[in-house]
Structure formats: structure tokens, C-alpha cells
Amino acid sequence: MSNLQLLFDAPVLLVQLIADGILVGSIFALAAYGMALVWGVMNVINIAQGEFVMIGGYVTYTLYSLGVHPLLGVPAAAIVLFVLGWAIYRLVIFRVVDRDLFVSLLATFGLSILIQQLLNQIFTSDVQSADSGLDTLFLFDGMVTVPHIKVVAFVLTLAIAGCLVVFLKSSRLGQAIRATAQNARAARILGIDTDRVYAATYALNAALCGAAGALVVMTWVIQPFQGLAYTVRSFMIVVVAGLGNLPGVIVSAFGLGAAENLAGFILGAEFQIAFVFGLLVVVLLVRSHRLKRQRRYLK
Amino acid sequence: MLGKLKPLALAAAAASLCLAGGAASAKVEGDTIVLGAAVSVTGKYSTNGKHTMNGYNLAIETINAAGGVEVAGKTYKLEIVYYDDESTPARGAQLAERLISQDGIKFLLGPYSSGLTKAIAPVTEKYGIPMVEGNGASRSLFTQGYKYLFAVLSTSEQYLAGAISLAAEKAIAEGRKPQDLTVALAFENDPFSQDVRAGVIDDASTYGIRVVIDDKLPKELNDMSATLTKVKAVKPDILVVSGHSKGAATAIKQIADMKVDVPILALTHCEAADVIGKFGAKADYTLCATQWAETMSYSDDLFGSAADYAKTFEAKFGYVPPYQAAESSASVQTFVDAFQRAGSFETDAVRDALAATDMETFYGNIKFDESGKNIAKPMALRQVQNGSLVVVAPTKWAAAEMIYPRPKWSDR
What we know:
Number of strands of chain A: 2
Helix content of chain A: over 70%
Shape of chain B: elongated
Order of helices and strands of chain A: HHHHHEEHHHHHHH
Shape of chain A: globular
Oligomer: heterodimer
Structural class of chain A: mainly alpha
Largest sheet of chain A: 2 strands, antiparallel
CATH superfamily of the largest domain in chain B: Response regulator
């Protein structure tokens, strides 16, 4: 508990931890939006989410090694992944969209293994990273340091979230996506090409992951087998926030980021991820308890 | 190209399988000694698996070109049968079974990584097949009483222990007591890194150095900021991080991003993560543990000096050999030396000859203790100075003084 003592002695550390957590959470939020979208609209849990993030990272890394500034990798990775997402939908996902959830879980799990190995073949298992060349922000006499890249990631996430909300609310495609999410059959009767909507949704998800990957490669390091962490975190963020709740996704991503960092500091890094899993269990228990009570009411 | 080669390779594999079926008992066919190895061609260890394979291949080619191996008056060529263990221990164990019982191989070279070696060693032990390895450093490999396992490399608990002694030396030179020093540890939660940690803790306690942070990083974690925040707060004298390539890259990147100032930073896997190539000046002043460096003054008759080995290797494969390749080449040399001294291909005779090994190679001296680990070669520490790695410890091979303390980020 000496770590806790440390926090009381120097509360400024708390600022560092929470700031770090929220900024990091914003990157998770990007991948989590995508997952929430695909899950909500198509009823597919995309296990390959983390691998899309890694592909986005490698797209950016490739551009970076060709001399392009990695920040340009954010739109570039989004575009590449959009196309790739569309292709994957046309090849694989459309076959599993109306099937049992278990089938799509298996299919995307297979995809994730395939992508890992392909990335490994192309880029080798070496750890890669791209240097954004951005500096670090010093606050409180240098006790709190915030790398600019994390701030950039934060702002970008909020901007993309804003765009996404506007897009879903007001654009034709966005409205079609929402209609399909509410009732696919009714949407089809009203003349919406749900197959196209699904393809667009999946591609959009991939694009979001791509953007997240570009930020990941600038903030941390990437490796073909690092994707799982992002899949798991997206999953948790979506579960905590609930489906179809974009602001909820952002808040829960920030909260999880901060909670994770605090747990890592106080309990030690070995409990950083375990703590978050524990939190997930608690959230699920509380939720199922509440649901049960509600059900009794309805009877 | 590959498409054309594949059927050929398949045919060759089928042919060799038939041959193996025919002469299942001996894996010395005519004038060829066949060694076997499962290495990681695919999967997460594929980069280091490739280094391992290149090391083995360079050794057998060089030995064959120099006339081969003379055993009991007859000259033999060397050959290696490889399988891809896909970086998974279970597959490695299966393949070892296959090499031994199906292909009839009697002498095994090690895979890459401690995890794979741990999976294969029980199999070689069961069949009484000698295995010489250069890439499994975990000390738990040498506490099982294995009789057929020999490792040419220094074991993991020695990796960063030198950094602690170096820090203590510096403290004494400055007129401080080592007991006043503090050390922060951040190690990945896997067998290898935890062994490295055990060695560091042992050394710290001999000097009375206090451990103020002791974090175990989960494998899935690629963010050290919580640990580094703690480091900034408690200001230890030494920060030691080990977590394979990912750990090294993450540490260098985040320490620079968060501007963490610490007088000594010591890592493993600097070369594997290519910290200098990837992070440039951010990697400066870092201490890196290495099994071997091409600047050291070891030499033998086959490859010449360590520098000669590096030159031959680079000419063939196009990159400077990391120590993973060097120790793999040395493993083959160890086998050859044992064959010559045993004067036969009887597995137990070769095993006994291996146990009695006492030789000098370009990679360092090799002499095994009871448990089969090499006790004649120390670990070295190199420091990144102006973008290149310079040996700073042990003093016998030191090319330069350690730059101490690391300059503060605000002064760089």
C-alpha cells in the first residue's frame, strides 16, 4: 500500500495517471465505436477488431518508413481499412451476418488468426513504431508529462466521434444504418438495401480501427500479435456502455483507461489488466441483477 | 520461384522420410551426419527463429567447406533437418518426437526461446538424445536434472546482474555507499524475464541495494506509463526493464515520451528490438545485456575472431549477426567437437564427450557444469553511446567507460 501513500504524498501523480488514462482511453474508444456499430447493426461481434487496428498501424508504419509524416497515416489507414473492410464483408462476413452469433464469432476469430499470420509474413514479428516527432507537454514543474501525440489522439477521437454522430443522424446512409439496426426486415420492406448497409457499416468499423491503429503506432509499439488487447478492450468498453450508445462508449472508454492506469499504479502493473476484467465481471453482475428485478416488475 | 521449388522440396521431404524409414536406427547416413532441429519459422518468434536457423546453417556450411568432421578416421559432412514449430511449445514437443522416432535423428539442436526448449527437453531426455542449444536461457531448464541438455549461452539470471554491480562500483567511486542506492524493476510476467529479475534481486541484495518498485508487466500490456509514473515519483538510481523486444521498445519509447530521468537504465533485447535504428537518440545511454558482441576478443580456428564471424555472416545474410545467431553457430561447433572427441556416434558416448567439453570459440569459452549450462562465458553489458553499442562491462572486454549518469532529458 506504499503506492497509495505515494498518491497522498504527491496528489499531482493522480493528475498524471488520470490524464494518461483518459488520453489512452480515447484511442480505445475509436476501436470500441466500430465494435458497437457492427454489433448493434449486424449482430456480429468482430473478434478481428484488434487485427484491424494492427493493420492500420502497419499502413502508417509503412508510409512512415517511406518518409511520410505518420499523422497523415490516420486518414490513409482509415481509407485503406475502409476498402479492406468492404472486401472482407463481401468475401466472408455477408455469409455469417444473419446466422447464429456463434458462427460469426468463429468466422471473425478465424479472420483474426489469418491476419496475424499474414502480417507476420509481411512485416516479421519485429516490434515497430513510428515517431510523430511531436514534443512533450510539461505541467506542474515537470511532474506531469503529457506527450503531444496523446493530446492529438484525444482531439481526433472527439472529432471523429462528433462526425460519426452527425453522420448517423443526418446522412442518408447513416439513417439507413440506424433503420437497419432497429429492424432489418422493416428496413428492407421500405426499400433499404440492407446488404449495402451492412457492407458500409463493416467498412466504417474497419476505417475507425485503422485510424486507431495509426494513433497506436505513434503512441506505443505494434506487433502482429498485439491485436487481442484491443479486441478485448473494445469488447469491454461496449459491454459497459451498452449497445447503440456512442456517448456512453466514450465515457466508458475514458473511465476504463483511467481505472486501468490507477490500478496499475496502486496494485502494480501485474494487476492492471486483471483489474479491468474484474470490473467487467462486477458490471455484468450488477446489470443482470437489475434486469432480473425489472423482469419481476413486468410480470 | 517458390511455387516451383515447393514440389521439389516436398519430393525431397518425402524421399528423406522414405530413407528415414529404411534406416531408422542411424542418423549417420554414408558420410553425412544428420542433425535435427525444430525452429520457429512462423509465429511470434519467427524473427529470432530465422537468426537461429541462419546461425546453424552458416556453421554447417563453414564446417563442410573446411573439409567436414573427422570422426574415428573417417570424414563426414553435416546436414540439418528442420521443422517449423510455429512458435508454439506443444508443436515443438511433437516435432521433437517426430525427429527422433520417425526420422531417426540422434542429435538435436535447440529451438529458439526458453519456452520451446522447455517443451522439447523432456522429449530428448526420454529418448536419451543429446541436445545442444543456444537459445534457451531460463534457469529453470537447469534445475530439472536433465542429463542430455547442454546450453552454450549464459543463463537468464546473469543477464542484467552486471548492471547492478556496475551501479555499485559507480556509487563507491563517487564516495556513496551501495546501500543507499535504490532500484526499480519492471519485468514481463514470463519465465525468462522473471529469471532475469531473480538474478537482479540476488545481486541487489548482496550489495544491500533497496528494491523500491517491483512491477510485473502482463504479456498483453504494451503500456508502461503507470510504472513509469511511479519511477518519476520515487526517483530510483537504477531502472531495470526486461520484456523481450516489446518490453525494450516500449521502455525506450515511453521513457523518452514521458521524459523520465533515471541515472542508469538497463534492458534486455536492445538488439532484437533494434532500439537504435528505431528510436535513434532516444535510445542513447541505455545499458543493454548481450550474450556476445562482435567486438569481443574471442576466436577459434573455424571462424577466426568474433569480428571475422560477423563479417562472414553479414556477407552471407546481409545483416550484422545478433547474438542469437552466434550462439546457434557455437552450438553446432560444440557438437562437432564432441563427435571428434567421442570418436563414435553412440549417443551416450557423445553425451559424455559433450559433458567434458572445454573449448574456445569465437563466441566465448564453453565448459558445462553438472546441469549442462555453460559456466565459462560471462554476460556482457553494452551501452548505447552516440548511436552505437559499446561494451562497458565486464572490464576485461570493455571498450569504453560507462557514461554515468544518463543526462537529464532537459539537458539533451
